[in-house]
Amino acid sequence: MTQRENLLYNRYVNTHSYISRKLIPLILTSLLLFACQTRESQPESTISVTNPPTQELTPTSIEPTPEPTPTPNPVLVEDEKFTVLRSQMVADQIAPRGIADPSVLDAMRTVPRHKFVPDDMVEQAYEDHPLPIGYGQTISQPFIVALMTQTLEPKPGQRILEIGTGSGYQAAVLAELDVEVYTIEIIPELAEQATKRLEDLGYTNVHTLNADGYFGWEEFAPFDAVIVTAAPDHLPQPLANQLVEGGRLVIPIGPVGFVQTLWLFEKESGELQATNLGGVSFVPFTGEH
Fold first, then answer.
1. d(CA 217, CA 162)
2. Could you report the per-residue pLDDT of 64-114, keeping only the tens digit for each?
3. At 264, which CATH number?
């Protein structure tokens, strides 16, 4: 390297060293001061948070849901109606006429008489008179049913023979007294209807037969009591023969188309003792005899 070149090099190095040591720190300091002054001169920015207006909560009243009104069961309503009618029947037609046996009165209050009459007669079922049931036959007046039942003086466990099932109503009343009822009907259609009706109502202690009742029911004889619900013109001897000693037989006897007499026969020492219970009107006794 020439002397001139060496001189220039040294001058460059010294210059660069001076800039590095003096100028650069000065420049940096100036920049920092400038930045600080700029920041102080600017207004501080604020963040404004606006809360929503407070709303008053008004309590809401909740009306209770009304319970639905139950719809009456028409079957239950009808049953209650007939229960009332039965009680009125006993109070107005039966008890005032001398029927005092509590078990008989209870049976008359219990048996649904309206189920033993034709549909078009249901509203008259508890009225104080007999009603037609078809085939020239009738269901007896409620009082007569109660009178004949009480006259038999039935006791639980006894066997009772009925001649003339008809609709089955008299048999049902007897069955309520805890006796075994053997009932005979000569008209096939009535026998079939009564058998089904009694079964449907749950009377397991009633036994039915389609036959001529004049001859009784020898297979199950003798009977503690016999009741006849049609009027012959004389007392059928087979019925008297099938009655136990001390037994009671209730039967209307008289000419067809006229007022008959209701009789009580009691067997004492093999003989029948008769008691006149008054005038009645029954359908005639039918059959080959």
1. 10
2. 666 666 655 555 567 899 999 999 999 999 999 999 999 999 999 999 999
3. 3.40.50.150
**Residue 259 located in a structural domain:** yes
User: Looking at the 3D structure of the chain, how many domains does it have?
Assistant: 1
Q: Which of 61, 140, 167, 269 is catalytic?
A: 140
Give the three-state DSSP class for 180: strand
Provide the whole-model pTM. Answer: 0.74
Q: Is 103 a catalytic residue?
A: no
Structural domain contains residue 234: yes
Whether 94 maps to a domain, the answer reads: yes
Q: Is 74 helix (H, G, I), strand (E, B) or coil?
A: helix
Q: Give the ranges where 162-235 is alpha helix by DSSP (H).
A: 169-175, 188-200
Q: Give 231-267 pLDDT, tens digit per residue.
A: 999 999 999 999 999 999 999 999 987 899 999 999 9
**Spatial separation of the C-alpha atoms in residues 60 and 42, rounded to whole Å:** 53
